[in-house]
Structure formats: structure tokens, C-alpha cells
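Kindly inspect what follows.
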Amino acid sequence: MIRDPCRTTRHAGDPTLRWVAGLLIPLAYHFLVGAGLPRPASAAPAAHSAAPQVFRYRIVSEHWHDPKAFTQGLEYGRTCSKEGNCTDFFWESTGMYGESEVRQVEFASGRVLRSRALPSQDFAEGITKLGNSLYQLTWRSPRAWVYATEDLGAARLASTPLLDGWGITNDGTRLILGDSSPTLTWVDPGTMARLHQRSVQDAGRAVPFLNELEWVDGAILANIWGRECLVRVNPADGRVLAWVDLRGITAHMAGSLSAEERKGPRLDVLNGVAWDAQGRRLFVTGKRWPRLYRIELVPVPPEHRGSLLADLREACIVVDTSIFGGRR
């Protein structure tokens, strides 16, 4: 059964909730909205030796998600009529050759409101909204599609300075692109010219395979492909400010599926991160996932942070970058 979007659900058996005991939920939420997260250097300089913060998660609510969607990018949106009636939705990029689309999906029902297919030679990747345009990358290609947000119309093809498209977000004025390497590239949205780059590092180690990107409160939130981990990255110097441990979320979902749902497409990896800045809500999903989750981040107490940080670095930083030739 899919929970109502307005209801808060708690999973007593979820191991991630053990960290919640004794913590006030408002305090955890306070950390999520920025007070507990390290700020980017442009806002408040921090010592490079400062250890990243560490968070676990709590599932607030779960919602139906198209199990056929090979999710590559997710972006929250909201539209309101003159009468004040508002609809929450997601722009979603779905991949695979011959199946790739850009979609506008109603949040409450998961219903596709409108969609547009990509040419068969394009394997869609990340997506982001900047101004009145949506920008959608393609895998193993510099090709990017640009659409009008109003109706996904006026599609035009652009060329990025990268040979491989993975994740994309923006800082309000510039696009930020990833290509499976530890490097993030800032791009002019009009000309697609490269502006500058940052290498994502944690304690001197490069952090590759950054996939879905999301701009959250002045920093970049990224999932690591093939891992149930998120990193929060300082855009000023590429330093990892925080780790989010999402391990167990795929197993939790698999255990919640009905017998009929288990007959559906094989579950793939976590790969969808969306942020509702006004409502302060964080959403995650994955490729071929029948569920989309709203989650809250729970800060790990200082006395447990060191050991978990070491564990996350070991589990989530990909060492063998020869996978897919260093590309996905």
C-alpha cells in the first residue's frame, strides 16, 4: 500500500531509525535545512582539515513510481492556477536507447502529465531546470536537449564541452555537469562554454562516479553511482562537506513490494534526487523503482561519526574506475 503524501510514516524495523532514538525530530530537520551542514566556503570558510558531517535517513512517506522508468534525473516542480490551486510534480529523465524520454509526472498519483521521446540514438541522463528551460544530458555524448518548461516544446539540441553526460544541476545562473569522473564542470547555459571545474575530494581522495546532481542550499548534493550514498559538495573547492548513508533503502523497498510488483522489471540502482526548496523536502528514487521516497536526514552523534565516516569512505568511494571504461 502506498502511503498518502501528507502522512508521515515510520518504519520501526528500519535499522536507520535506531539513530533517531533520543533525538528530537525538529533537531534532525534543523540539521537538514542547513544549520548542521557545513556551509560552502563562499558563505563561511571552513578548515580543509574539518571532517565531513555524517547523516543517516528516515523515511517520511512513500509514493508510487513508474517501475518501467529507468530514472536518470529528477527535478521537483510546482505550478499554481490563478485560483490558487497548486500541483506538485517532477520533471523526470528516463534512459535506455529507444526508451529515453523527458516527462512531467504528477507527484500525487505518479501519472505522466506530458512526455517527449528522444531520438533513438540518445540515452538520456541528468536533467535540471534553469529559468524557463529544462536541460537534459545524454550518455557517452556531448548532446544535450533543451526544452521549454511550460509544455516541453521548442526542443533544441545543444553541445556541451563534455564527451559524456551524467549528472546536471545549476546554481541559479550556471549549469553544473558531471561525466563519471570526480570533476564537476560549470557551463554557461547560453553558449555551453566551459567556465571552470572543481575536483571532488574527501580527505585527499578523489570521489568519482558522481551521478545525479542536485543544488541544495548553496551546495551540490550528488549520489554515487552503484552505491547507496550521497555526498554534499562545496562548490567553491570541491571538498565533501557531508556524507549521507542511504544503505538499506533498496532492501527496504524490495521487502515492501507486493507479489504482483515483484513480477515487474528488475530493480536497479538508486538514481534520483530531488529537492523542494520551498517546502524543504528531499526525495529519492531509482532506476526501475516502483517507489519514490520522501526522506529526512538524521545527524549521526559525534561519538559514532568517526567510525561510520571511515566505513562510508570504504564502501562508497569507488576505487576501480575501470568499470564501464570509467564511464556509465
Notes: The CA atoms of residues 322 and 328 lie 10 Å apart. The domain at 16-319 is CATH 2.40.128.630 (Lipocalin). The two ends are 34 Å apart (CA to CA). The chain is about 10% helix and 40% strand.
